[in-house]
């Protein structure tokens, strides 16, 4: 398993770290290069799960997202054919993977705005972030309901 | 870089035209806006914006109903626009000019009303591979309802309709052909005059999706001998939610109304409703009065601007942009038809269009990315979509240079 295996930090703590990381970038190029690197470097999803069942609709690029529930925590694995989208999912995974489902459900993900990626949050079909967050929350909710 | 002096001397003064479009002087992400998404929608000149304000401040009223001064003023402006719309498409008379919400609305009207009237099980409707969803789905819907069959005309690798194949597809069951005048994704200008002649030889009528032709070409429905022709105001520098559908009068006369209520009615009793005459038969409810009247102003604006060599200017942008893109290397242009409007669809290396579009946006460059509502066409080329730069009458070579610079940066960042 990758770095998402165990997350001892709270969602808030990780968000704060990310906000701090992003505050050091003084131009958009650095910010996007960081996102692109995240997208390139994270091994995300097992190719055998790149099937319709795990497809996130509402993305201009293709996105697959698969949840796993283990020892009271929810883990996410994802992939996309677009590298920026992949980087953005990697960000979401950094924050939400390995957390308790109730914390995922209650998170407001306000950090995305604070790190200056607001334009990716617009609730249109051209953009997947809103969709991805709601998929992640819905998966967490379904784990909660099962327990 | 082109010399500014050279432009002032040229017959078409783009810098002066740009002054008519207030939106173009804004900054996006701290860069001067480069707007290359004209195939999706065009910006509006201040004359049109002012007309909207004038309408709401001086004549807002319902049309065709009131005896009072405002209603007569609004009705006059509305019906004067019909005459402008007639001239815009060169229709024979204003009875053939139906105001719609736009091209999609016009095609839906023809599909539901004419298609619903003539199509029988086993009949055939022909569209092409390069159609926009608006010229696919209404036909799928009416085919499903009537039992007719949808047939798809193939295109070549360069994005041109294969005319021999087209002709060989006709049978005595072919009732309707519906094709785009210009492809929104590829820029291909289809040889619709020939295609219409072929269809008529086999007894089929032809519907033209003129959404992309409105801003780029001078349209003459009589010369084309089109049976129906639909355009959207917002694609040719007018307001959204307004459009024109032209139809041959005998066809329109024979067709049943599309929607019920409002202006389409002459008299109503519970026993029988008598429908109004053309064109009102097809204009149910209170129309989009303000935007339609402002569309008339846009038509005046275009007539005026077309006195200069705007077509040559746009062709020049297309050629300049194509050459500059090809110089970069690792660029694949999708749609290389001989006859093209100023629309360029392309891919950079194997990068996803979404990535490229997001980065270009950071540099203030608005391009469209994705499938452009032409999913079957993207499947035809086996690609996830394209980056599309579509140029309008206010774009410049300097802006193309900025996009090219941007693409070099995108290549560097994504490699």
What's this model, at a glance?
The complex is a heterodimer of chains A (147) and B (415). Chain A is mostly helical and 147 residues long. Helices cover 47% and strands 11% of the residues of chain A.
Task: Tell me what you see in this structure.
- The complex is a heterodimer of chains A (147) and B (415).
- Chain A has 147 residues and is mostly helical.
- Chain A has 6 helices and 2 strands.
- Chain A has a two-stranded antiparallel ribbon.
- In chain A, helix 2 crosses helix 3 (83-96) and helix 3 (83-96) packs parallel to helix 6 (129-146).
- The two termini of chain A are 24 Å apart.
- By secondary structure, chain B is α/β, with parallel strands linked by helices.
- Classes of the chains: A mainly alpha (147), B alpha/beta (415).
- Chain A binds chain B through residues 28-29, 32-33, 36, 60-62, 81-85, 119-120, 126, and chain B through 29, 351-352, 354-355, 358-359, 361-362, 369-370, 384-385, 409, 413-414.
**Structure summary, number of beta strands of chain B:** 17
Q: Helix content range of the residues of chain B, please? A: 40-55%
What is the beta-strand fraction of chain A? 5-15%
- Low-confidence region ranges of chain A: 1-5
- Roughly how much helix do the residues of chain A carry, as a percent range? 40-55%
User: Got a strand count of chain A?
Assistant: 2
Count every helix of chain B, treating DSSP H or I runs of 4 or more residues as helices: 16
For the biggest sheet of chain B, the summary is: 7 strands, mixed
Mean pLDDT of chain A: 86
- Kindly report the average pLDDT value of chain B: 94
Radius of gyration of chain B: 22 Å
Q: Are there runs of chain B of 5+ residues with pLDDT below 50, and where? A: 1-10
Number of helices of chain A: 6
**Computed CA radius of gyration of chain A, to the nearest angstrom:** 14 Å
Distance between the termini of chain A: 24 Å
Strand order, main sheet of chain B: write it out.
4-10-9-8-7-5-6
Q: How are strands sequenced across the largest beta sheet of chain A?
A: 1-2
Strand content of chain B: 15-25%
- Give the structural class of chain B: alpha/beta
